[in-house]
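assembly run, all chains below
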Amino acid sequence: MNTAKDIHSVPSWIPPATRLVELHGDYGTTDFIMRRGGSLPKVVVAYESWGRLSQMHDNAVLVFTGLSPSAHACSSHEDPSPGWWEYMIGPGKPIDTDRFYVVCVNSLGSCFGTTGPSSINSKTGKRYCVDFPDLTIEDIAKAGHHAMQELGVDHLCAVVGASMGGMSSLAYALQYPDEVDYLVTISSACRSLPLAVAMRSIQREIVRCDPDWKDGLYEPSEEPKNGMTLARKIGLISYRAGEEWNQRFNRARVSPKFKGRSKFGIEFEVESYLDYNAHKFVDAFDANSYLYLSRAMDWFDVAEHGGSVNAGLAKIHSRKTLVIGVETDILFPVTQQEEIFNGIGKAGRNVEFIRLPSIKGHDSFLIDEENFAPAMSKFFSEIS
Amino acid sequence: MNTAKDIHSVPSWIPPATRLVELHGDYGTTDFIMRRGGSLPKVVVAYESWGRLSQMHDNAVLVFTGLSPSAHACSSHEDPSPGWWEYMIGPGKPIDTDRFYVVCVNSLGSCFGTTGPSSINSKTGKRYCVDFPDLTIEDIAKAGHHAMQELGVDHLCAVVGASMGGMSSLAYALQYPDEVDYLVTISSACRSLPLAVAMRSIQREIVRCDPDWKDGLYEPSEEPKNGMTLARKIGLISYRAGEEWNQRFNRARVSPKFKGRSKFGIEFEVESYLDYNAHKFVDAFDANSYLYLSRAMDWFDVAEHGGSVNAGLAKIHSRKTLVIGVETDILFPVTQQEEIFNGIGKAGRNVEFIRLPSIKGHDSFLIDEENFAPAMSKFFSEIS
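ok done. output:
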């Protein structure tokens, strides 16, 4: 397998241990057909992997990410920097790389090595930008599926994802029901509800209102940073929960030396926190990727796979599904986790639901090791 | 009393039945001293009133508004258009104008007739814009208090407010504890928590990022409408609740003819709803007023009136206080209503708490007549 540098010029934001794999297309062509129309003449998927594929090729675990992370889910010899799910993946960890061959893919449409709006269209020699075709969660799942095939895996032991990654995992199990044994979906949903659509719609509008967006035709060095910063702040609000911030910030003020000179500048710690984290993100994410992935989440609807949500969920026939939800999640509320659990259960399948009291909202899976690690350890240790 | 037109040139957004009263200033001057420093050389307060002041001057009810409404809380012979609290105020209604002399004031710093950033500074002959001094909820309460004095009312029967208006009512009872008999605070708070500060901070930043804001020096005809529209959409999200939108919109799409041509334009009904309501608001609200009032809410803290929230609340000694909260409110969560109730109760005062199951979130008081009208009717009917 090649490193990123072998295949094409590497944007600075591809993590060092990330590798790229070029997919075979659909129907004997190299074209990757998109669900809502259009196709991509060539798709490359960026991934990282840990552990070794067994001789039987039966120990592969595919991890889909949320909207913003790269494939660097955990550290390795080649890239010792901590990954976005460092506590979850590794030797002796809940997803134990002494037992499993774990692959994390960067989602189709994203910007950390996988083909997306910032990639060069091989047919035109230009970046796709907003000529990238409509992107769906099902396309993301398909790109992950095809990438695993390129890596020699025709059948997954498990597919795992949280947030948008949970949707991608559901889409995987819906589209390839015979090719996966176990499914884990965390803080995800069968379909986005109006509050989540509204939260994301405003983020997209803010990016599009930034004059630097230039109808999507900005140069890579001239990203619409103002719009992206503001959008990310709204995202951050939707990812966390009030109670955590009450305990962490309460009404603390920033030191006067950090206070902006502007009359309405940063004054409370929570404002400073949002500002710091939004800027950190904006420096490493493509605006058009943000728009496409965000809209893909709005569109996702399990009901498209059978006429109703329950009919869709009935198509999933993994040996066991684990559904985890968090009580303080406002973006993918716990009632939506119950909907997945109930739907799969009604179809007579083996499904477990864990309702966690984390106070950290939607993003708990990233940070609440105390609650998530034991739940995931138990599930994976029971896989024989 | 004069009509708006008698006193100064009337911006088009002063409702027809609104009257203006010029305040006497503090310490024998005409200056209105502001809590955080600075002063206003002249303050005019816009108000509407319904019912008649009794001979004993003992039946006055002062209503403070939330961030965005004018003093037009209900209709009258002079202005038959429905007010923002039409179901609550009027003959035979919960706040019965056959019994009470009801006055609603436009808040200091707002833009519907009361002095605010869009007013002319009589010392310079120019609009204040961002030279308007720091505005606090206590200043808003004081302007209401002084306005009532000009109207011949030295002692209120009751002060009432919801949302920001609830904060203003609390500030009134804190600053003039001997001059009010009954207090009603709805979906309000002793102080803003980080999630509410964050929600408002982003709205302000979006307005300030609009190039048309021009550091606050825009011409009245060239308001930063893009920024205000986006900010209002975020506001609207924080004012409502997920469950209402699930029932109302679910995943309904707009008719293709209303769908924007843009790739990321309006597609879901909830997006269309936000767009319609945000534009309606923006055409009738001054951007600098929005910034000042928004920040005033962040700053408000009952603890400033005694060292702690409870010590502050102990200063309120109305005969009875009614606290109403809504379970689905994410901006001023019901736990904050309990905080008010508990604090006043601990001080040995008569206080009642009503926890409503409305699914319409923070804005329930505007629309959930079914739950709010009986609660308010009972309280006011018991005032002898």
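DSSP finds twelve helices and twelve strands in chain B.

Chain B touches chain A through 47 residues (CB under 8 Å).

not gonna interpret more than that til we talk
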